[in-house]
Amino acid sequence: MTERRGNGGQGRRYGGGGGGRGGAGRRPEPEPIRGVRDEARLSEELLRMQGASYGRYKSLKGDWDFGDFTLTVQRVQADPFAPPSRIRVLRPDAGIPASAHADPVRRRATADYLGRRARRLLRGSLLKIDTGGQEVIARSSCQITEGGALDLRIGVDLPGHGRRIDGRTAERELCRTLPALVDDLDWDEIDHAEAEAFADTVVDAVALRAGLADRGLVAFVADGAILPRRSGVSDEPMAGEGVVPFDAPESLRVSVDLPHAGTVTGMGVPEGITLIVGGGFHGKSTLLHALERGVHDHVPGDGRELVVTREDAVKIRAEEGRRVERVDVSPFVRNLPTGADTRDFRTENASGSTSQAANICEAVEAGARTLLVDEDSTATNLMIRDERMQALVHGDREPLVPFVDLVRPCTASTGSPPSWSWAAAATTSTSPTR
Q1: For residues 428 and 379, is the Cβ–Cβ distance under 8 A?
Q2: What are the φ and ψ backbone dihedral angles of 66, each rounded to 5 degrees?
């Protein structure tokens, strides 16, 4: 573990006693504390603030030298009930080897691993770090620089009794809990094999996603993947005897070679038009949701580590009531009774069909080449017009052009056609077909 260099080599100093009730009449924006700003001074100042007006916390803004890291108080909350204060911890040397941060993918994965470790270590503390959900993405809460420095952005609920400072608790959190966290994130203190396996999982997912286009695929779902989630409000994997691992149909089974996982088999979703069909409770939306989230890498143990989708995939749905501003929806909407120009369409309260049409057009304009559409969350009147509706309402009087009438001409009209995946509970077949 790296030796801490603060306090003149004397080790960490902790203040004692309760301190005075100073600063009771200070204004909410006091001058920053001047002079020596190190760990010992911060401890003394916090203890001295015990019982002072809450606004005096603002004098802590700026940098504090803890020896092997710098604490920066960036924003101080106005009162104990306001959103948390924000602090930054920059440690130039956390012992992270070049192999864990030289490559951008491994650097992102290692930072995510350390951020999640920090979240576990801070459980029960007033210090909080945001590490998101099951996805491994670049976050400002925990970053590793190209040179190997560790950069943390942490929220802290600065404690108070009413509108008076609880200096003792603040001193404990900032001068004891925080340095202990930094020590525990030292590379010598973590499980190296676990950290490397975490990064290997992300590297495999990135390599798999990068190779989809060359294989003529838009997505891949590995055999054995766990797609169901614990609940509608949890993105963690479902567990228990009733969970069924994914098993690819033979007609779509492919094998891929990955840098660390080796040869992996699974379902390759081909370019073009793919329908996912089946009866109720057969997992159509569950599969489509996994494909939707496959644009991101996932943590080990999520069940979707090797469920990947091209980065240009977009989920399309109806959003009744959304605002639409100057979108050309004329491919799907024409001859509105109001006379509105659908080539330059705007509305403050879109219907289900016009909102979905706008979503499709906006996605394509933004560069999406893969559209994922779940029948359960679409506007039926935009998706299809059956023979009876065509007989009841003549085409000249119907402003909507059905989605199914445009899909195949759209894919055939370009040299590199977009691919569409549509989940439809239309038959009892459970095998995806092209």
Answers
A1: no
A2: -105, 15
